[in-house]
Amino acid sequence: MGWSFTAPAGAEPAPADVAGASEAVQTYISATNNVDVGLMRATVCGRLAAATSVGTDEQVRQVMQSQRDRIGLAHIEILHPVELGSPPGQVDLLAQLTSEHHPQDPSGNGVNLVYHTEKVNGSWKVCHARNEGHLDEP
Fold this sequence. Notes:
Elements: H1 15-34, H2 37-43, H3 46-53, H4 57-71, E1 74-82, E2 90-99, E3 111-120, E4 123-133
Antiparallel strand pairs: 1-2, 2-3, 3-4
Helix pairs in contact: 1-2, 2-3
């Protein structure tokens, strides 16, 4: 079952929530690019927090470095809300990313990820990311 990108009536997130969620995603990408374990742990919640809490700082850093070496530095080309009827305090953002090892394909598309963000104790955090492929795919 695929995701619908159609907004139910009244489901548009508040501009301040979109801004906070967008900043969280940008900080998450920065932490990934810089292999910054402390910033990564401060920026995530949910599944991502569970994944980064296992092991020592050095073990997590090694995993992050390995992923960055494989993918390269990520760049956000497009970032906008995906209105899935999320409750207040939650915003899903679609990001089109390119990287050193995964540039845009010939049709100009990068990798499309949806980042699920939540406001936790007053701060926006990235809780999950899922690959959506190319949005023009059937």
